[in-house]
Amino acid sequence: MCGIFGYIGEERPLQLWLDGLSRLEYRGYDSCGVATIKNDFIFIKKQQGKILDLRTNLKNLSLEKFNIGIAHTRWATHGKPNNLNAHPHIDCGKKIAIVHNGIIENYLLLKEMLLAERHKFLSQTDTEVITHLIEKFYQGNLLGAILKCVKELKGSFAIAIISTYQPKQLIGIRKGSPLILGLTDKGQFLASDIPAILPLTKKVVYLEDEQIAILEKDKVNIFDFEGRPNRVNIERINIKEEQALKKGFPHFMLKEIFEQPEVLDKTFLLYLKKEKIHFPQLNLKESFLKNLKNIFITACGTAYHAGYLGKYFLEKYCGVNVYIDVASEFRYRNFNLPNRSLLISISQSGETADTLFATRDAKSKKIKVLSICNMLGSSLAKISDNLILTPAGPEIGVASTKAYTAQILVLILFSLYLAKIKNIISEKFYQDAIVELKAIPNLIREILGQSKKIKSIADKFSKFGCFLFLGRGINYPSALEGALKLKEISYIPAEGYPAGEMKHGPIALIDEYRAVVCIAVYDNLYEKMVSNIQEIKARNGKVLAILNYQDIQASKLSDEAIYIPRLKNQDFSPLLIAPVLQLFAYYVAKNLGKEIDQPRNLAKSVTVE
Ligand code: F6R
Questions:
Q1: Residues whose CB falls within 8 Å of the CB of residue 379, separated by 6 or more in sequence, listed in order
Q2: 188 lines ligand 1 (CB under 6 A)
Q3: Quick one: which of 570, 547, 560 has its CA closest to 437?
Q4: Each residue of 497-532: pLDDT tens digit?
Q5: How far apart are CA 340 and CA 322, in angstroms?
Q6: Is the CB of 399 within 6 Å of ligand 1?
Q7: Which of 240, 166, 177 is nearest to 209 (CA)?
Q8: Which domains does the chain carry?
Q9: Cβ contact 531:503 at 8 Å
Q10: Is the CB of 328 under 6 A from ligand 1?
């Protein structure tokens, strides 16, 4: 939520900040702004709306060169998205400008105190207290003022600061919200996320929690919140620039849907060696895994749906008890996590506030944590004892797609790995599963080849004002995910439901105006799904069914059907169903003219509670 970008170094046109910011726009897009220093003055330009509007407004200026600046794209938490609440914010003396990602939880108390000391506030944001606090504490040393300021702040923050007091320094602060530094010989960058600096440098520093970075044209110093110097750990990122570009696709979401076969192939490259599953980074002792009885899974949104599938795999193959909850509930429940438990935390970004809190909580109770995460340098990756990386690469579309299928595959592989260690599945089952899984990327390619057909069905269904997605067993989580995809990018109310629960309420919704997406692939619950379809048709509901090619019963009942290959082990079918439902949601949203990569009110990483 919110993206921040900063640069100090050789003079560069203002365009640099706007371009950097545009690469972060997926993090928030209701307003934006930029601040720089020229002739000892802070120049600020803010804009309600998108970065494109800011560019238009700054047209004449965008080629003018500056050697320092900060920029921000906002996802509003405190105060409406308007010009006043857009960042950067400035102090009363107009000497200090800041941008912020996160939430200052005690800002009301701080604001009261600062108002009593006659500081003048221009916005309703929590952020503005930071500028005034630094102003209050400033006594000739900016770092000294910042050290005092951060001690007053409760909550999470990544902050970038420029000041006419020290115009040759760009300052970054991190507590709870992500901040990375990008280093070059000609200048230094800071940003909320890697895509912002990908075209500019591959030399990065992942700032740790409670660190302050002072960037100058040719050097970087890092301090902790006590002002003690810290080591600067420089890493090289192994992500190609084109991975964060649209590559000819009209939307990132579509590009990322089409990247799924490649992502799954990469996952095999990482975790299959001579047809055996291995997780080189796993620190869990075999004896611990052998005796493992309880697994807790926590995540949010799409990652939670992947986790839900994980529950099915782990219960079925490993004979363990698996409990799952969304992180925002899990962290506030009085869960008794017994010894010999494992927490699996799943997150694309590794920065989701609730998932991080839930993970930290479990760690404080001495529970071992395994994270499944797409971002190597993220907070989740750092706090976890064990990490399985999903190699999906940068996911820019706000609606998660390729990270989801990568999470599912990793969960299947981990379940098979654990089942083998526990000696629950036979060598033949294990080998057959691997052979079948390895064929899946090509089957997905085949499904993606049906995108024209899926589009034409989506065009027809986009007139419906309400959707139900039904599945049973292993494909109940697929139904949840299908509904989430549709509602988040098309804004059509959609609910995912276990089909067996229809009679206990939702069937009351069914009439000729309701569209029902039924996942009815051949598995042990196929016949029951067919009965559910009958019940919907008897009440005039419109059925779009996801079926296997060889289907003979459900296809006759459904208004439309999309066919996918039948697997020997249908437990893996969610990997084939996901791209179908993603494409369906994509084309419905496209038909309705929605902003697919940046749906209203959403942001890519939810770094606040
Ligand atoms: C939905 C979506 C969100 C995320 C959720 C968790 O398409 O993208 O529901 O899945 O916010 O985000 P991560 O995985 O980054 O923790």
A1: 176, 178, 209, 350, 351, 356
A2: no
A3: 570
A4: 999 999 999 899 999 999 999 999 999 999 999 999
A5: 13
A6: yes
A7: 177
A8: 3-242 (3.60.20.10), 246-444 (3.40.50.10490), 449-597 (3.40.50.10490)
A9: no
A10: no
Cβ of 355 below 6 Å from ligand 1: yes
For residue 591 the two structure tokens come to 């038909």
Specify whether the backbone of 191 is left (phi greater than 0), alpha (psi in -120 to 50) or beta. Answer: beta
Using CA positions, which residue lies closest to atom 10 of ligand 1?
A: 302
Tokens standing for 236?
């090289």
Which alpha helices (DSSP H) does 248-386 contain, by range?
Answer: 252-258, 260-271, 286-290, 301-318, 327-330, 353-364, 379-383
Residue 524 burial class via C-beta count within 10 angstroms: exposed 0-12, middle 13-18, buried 19 and up: exposed
* DSSP3 helix / strand / coil % (the chain, rounded to 5): 40, 25, 35
Q: What pLDDT digit, counting tens, does each position of 377-406 carry?
A: 889 998 998 999 999 999 999 999 999 999
> How far is 377 from 370, CA to CA, in rounded Å?
15
Distance from the CA of 301 to the center of ligand 1, in angstroms?
5
Q: Is residue 556 classed exposed, middle or buried when 0-12, 13-18 and 19+ CB atoms within 10 A define those classes?
A: exposed
Nearest CA owner, ligand 1 atom 4: 301
Cα separation, 322 vs 366, in Å, equals: 18
In terms of Cα–Cα distance, which of 514, 490, 496 is closest to 584?
Answer: 490
Q: What DSSP string describes 467-497?
A: EEEEE-GGGHHHHHHHHHHHHHHH---EEEE
Give the predicted TM-score (pTM) of the model: 0.87
Phi, psi dihedral angles at 74 (to 5 degrees)? -110, 145
Query: Which amino acid belongs to residue 108?
Result: L
How far apart CA 68 and CA 40 sit, in angstroms, is 12
Q: Count the alpha carbons within 13 Å of 228 in the hemisphere toward its beta carbon.
A: 4
314-340 pLDDT tens trace: 999 999 999 999 999 998 888 777 878
Beta-strand ranges (E) seen in 503-571 are 515-519, 542-548, 560-564
